[in-house]
Amino acid sequence: MKNAIDAAIVAARHRMAAREIGIAEGQPGFYLEFDIPTTERAAIEGLENKKSAIELVAVRPPAEGEELVTASVFVPESATEFFANKIEAYRTQDTRSGKPKYQALVARIEGIRLGVARSLFTDEIALFPATNRPTWWEVWLRDDRLAEFHTVADRLNVRTKSHTISFPERDVILALADEAAMDRLLRNSDAVAELRLAKDTPTLFLEMPTIEQADLAGDLRDRVDPPGALAPAVCLLDGGVTQNHPLIALGLDTADQHSYEPAWGVADSAYWNGHGTSMAGLALYGDLEGALSHQARVTLSHRLETVKILPPAGENDPLLYGAITQTAIDRVEARAPRRRRAFCMAVTSDLGLGRGRPSSWSAAVDQLCYGAGDRRRLMVLAAGNLPGDIRASEYPDRNDLEEVASPAQAWNPIVFGAATDKITIKHPDYNGWAPVAPAGDLSPASRTSGIWDRQWPIRPDVVFEGGNFAHDGTNPASAIDDLQLVTTHYRPALRLFEAFGDTSAANALGARLSGQIMAARPELWPETIRGLIVHAAEWTPAMRAHFDAAGSQAAKSAVLRRYGWGVPDYSRSLLSATNDATLIVEDALLPFRKEGSAIKTRDMNLHLLPWPRDELAALGALDVELRVTLSYFVEPNPGERGWTRRHRYASHSLRFAVKRSLESLDAFRQRINKAAEVEEEGDVVVAPRGDRWVLGTIRDRGSIHSDIWKGSAAALADRDAVGVYPISGWWKEKPALQRWDRSARYSLLVTVRATSADVDIYTAIANQIAVAIPA
Questions:
Q1: Neighbours of 531 (CB within 10 A)
Q2: Cα–Cα distance between 730 and 453 in angstroms, integer?
Q3: Which residues are CB-neighbours of 588 under 8 A, at least 6 positions away?
Q4: 303, 251 contact by CB (below 8 A)
């Protein structure tokens, strides 16, 4: 026993010495793993010693027939010799009664070794993930160590889910890592108490008998707080919705159901496999697996509206979809003209695709978003799915070659593609099967704009969960229930829940986020809400790896056109943190002016940023990130003339530029004027070397532009102005249409983030804003 504890302590000292500067957080320490006979398992409690801050963290029950129980404790560095001293005392000292000291504990220990990730795994050991295989872990954290865990996980690029379940002594969070990454996290943190496999099993709910599904739905219904009378809406343009589903009725009034053709009715139909009701469940609740798996209350921040635009049998003429969409929107707005809403449409068509060239339908969508005067509309669209069989061998090349479906060529709506984190296959029917997409990568059916001509928008804008496919290595892949989302079924008398996925699911989740933002910030423009969703998006490590491996700007552009700006985070879209502050500007400019008979570029807006210069200068070389997003709507001109430089689709375009360190405001203005002139002439704008923007000029497509600058806090202190300036469009080049004097409004979002969570940058900026800052 002495040799075992001595070897474990030597290994522990090496492990503590290997903690990484700049990554490690919390109290230095290590885990010890003990083997105790099952007949003596009461001795396990004696492994904990509160006075020495030694905590019993995990006990793995023995499998049938095993004679040993494995228990793990966390030992702080200050108590490194605690167990060695006890064992030595057991060997050399006796109590007054003549028995060895600490016999009740030491005599019952059969083995001791340094603990690793496997030591803290309390599910059946046979389920422990294979080497080098990323897995979603259920990480049970020690008390009050959630923030510390997030910090270390972020520094190690270990992905975590935002949702946390809290218990009196434990917080539970999901993290994606292989065994090596989890061991590294344990080495650099004292936060983890226990590891289990994540229990993300949609099949559990989908295969329940109907009566059990009804009980679960009833329990959830009783925990739901319905939306208020003034709540905004997500309006689904789809195949109708089953309003009497017990979970849908809470957020959808029968008076808010409409139909393009009254004879169609408003209910969902078997012809479309209940698609509208599936969309409705996700738009209200998100993936129902989460809400069904806990007992917390659920608050609906927004309501639903529906318009049935798909006939109960057969299909519409795709050439009429522009008019159908317009009529559907008119019906809803006539019913509740003052209600704020996001229009959600997952219906797509392959008719007339042309490498990003606008269709009549997409142009009609752009016109609906642009509206008239200040009547702008927020529309969210699906990127569309690959037709036919999905084969693992073709992923993701086929996704890059199959272009986004109509009407997602439109510039003004936000377009959602699908990504996936669902990789766990547990159903015994699929033993030996593998997921097609890795965690954090593109969902197998999601389309992209990889083959579009460079002048057209980046699509998708962002991606949401769309489920995954599984394959057996030979046959086409299947969308098995284990890898799908859980939503509402359109025939609740038969079953309550349904599996759902692809870009329709992603679109419904994106619509839900839009409704949540509208509810939290009802004063924001549609352009701003669209901008916030993109602004809050980040690439997953899997996406980032593809971008980092892209050598040229063309290769980076291809990655951007596959994933958009990544996966949005709700909390980041609305909330500033101490180390993360967001500024929102809603403004307008007059892009053009008339001189004689000529129309020329007119205004540039310069926004001074309220950076706390002294605080930033004091931080010196500390790494910070500056993210800027510019969002605006264009008036479309869809007449097919090739859209050469003088026959442009967009009424105008805007760009942003950020003042550089050591650059005066006058020099900044001159640089912006030069950049505008270069782009006006149709020349390629080349980003200067060393300016440290992640994307550079490839961000300047469509009508939303977002990019991240990385540098030191001291350098950021001098980057204290953002310029917004116009580029030509048909308002300028078609003076006979008398649009040149129109105002162009825009939303500008600026976030500064300190990469260290210990830096309070928010308070310093808030104090600076309290002083009048000129625009």
A1: 27
A2: 19
A3: 743, 744, 745, 746
A4: yes
- Measure the CA–CA gap between 735 and 729, rounded to whole angstroms: 11
DSSP letter at 125? G
- Res. 647: pLDDT tops 60: no
Q: How many CA atoms lie within 13 A of 28 on its CB side?
A: 14
> What's the token pair of residue 429?
């029917």
Dist CA 235 CA 302 (whole Å): 10
Buried b (16+ CB within 10 A) or exposed e, 169-195: ebbbbbbbbbbebbbbbbbbbbbbbbb
Q: How is residue 156 written in tokens?
A: 């190690």
How do residues 289-316 score in pLDDT, each as one tens digit? 989 987 789 999 999 999 999 999 988 8
Cα–chain-centroid distance for residue 124? 31
- The residue behind tokens 């936060």 is 191
Q: Tell how far CA 463 is from the center of its chain.
A: 7
Give the orientation angle of helix 321-335 with respect to helix 360-370, to 10 degrees: 20
Distance of CA 200 to the CA centre of its chain: 18
Instruction: Measure the CA–CA gap between 461 and 380, rounded to whole angstroms.
Output: 10
Residue with tokens 């060239």: 357
| DSSP β-bridge partners for residue 194 | 140
Alpha-carbon distances, residue 747 vs 155, 182, 554, 585 (angstroms): 32, 41, 28, 6
| Residue with token string 């999601």 | 446
**Average pLDDT over every residue of 40-49:** 90
Residue 689 pLDDT exceeds 70: no
Type of residue numbered 246: P
Residue 385, Ramachandran bin (φ over 0: left; ψ between -120 and 50: alpha; else beta): beta
What whole-number distance in Å separates Cα of residue 691 and Cα of residue 675?
A: 15
CB count in 10 Å sphere of residue 290: 16
**Contact by Cβ (8 Å): 404, 449:** yes
List the beta bridge partners of residue 138: 174, 196
237 Cβ contact list (under 8 Å, min separation 6):
307, 309, 325, 328, 329, 343, 344, 345, 347
**Residues 6+ positions from 445 with CB-CB distance below 8 Å:** 385, 386, 390, 418, 466, 469, 501, 502, 503
End-to-end CA distance of the chain: 73
Query: In whole angstroms, what separates CA 144 from the centre of its chain?
Result: 25
- Measured over the CA atoms of residue 103, residue 108, residue 113 and residue 117, the dihedral's sign is negative
Q: Are 283 and 259 in contact (CB under 8 A)?
A: no
> Is the pLDDT at 552 greater than 60, yes or no?
yes
Nearest CA to 506 out of 415, 418, 405, 399 is that of 418
User: From CA 308, how far away is CA 321, in angstroms rounded?
Assistant: 13
Q: Cβ-count burial of 3 within 10 angstroms (0-12 exposed, 13-18 middle, 19+ buried)?
A: exposed
Strand partners of residue 234: 304, 342
The answer to whether the beta carbons of residues 287 and 336 sit under 8 Å apart is no
- Phi (first) and psi of residue 594, to 5 degrees: -110, 125
Backbone dihedral region for residue 545 (phi beyond 0: left; psi -120 to 50: alpha; all else: beta): alpha
> Sign (positive/negative) of CA torsion 638, 639, 645, 651?
negative
Q: What does the pLDDT look like over 140-178, one tens digit per residue?
A: 999 999 999 999 999 999 989 877 878 788 989 989 999
Instruction: Specify the DSSP element, H or E, that contains 561.
Output: helix 553-563
d(CA 570, CA 575): 9
Alpha carbon distance 709, 624 (integer Å): 8
What backbone phi and psi angles, to 5 degrees, belong to 103?
-60, -40
Q: Which residues pair with 197 in a beta bridge?
A: 137
Of 282, 272, 246, the residue nearest 467 (C-alpha): 282
Q: Provide the token pair at 736.
A: 């006979």
**Helices 553-563 and 541-549, interaxial angle, to 10°?**
160
| DSSP state, residue 20 | P
- Beta bridge partners of residue 463, listed in sequence order: 417
412/631 Cα distance (integer angstroms):
9
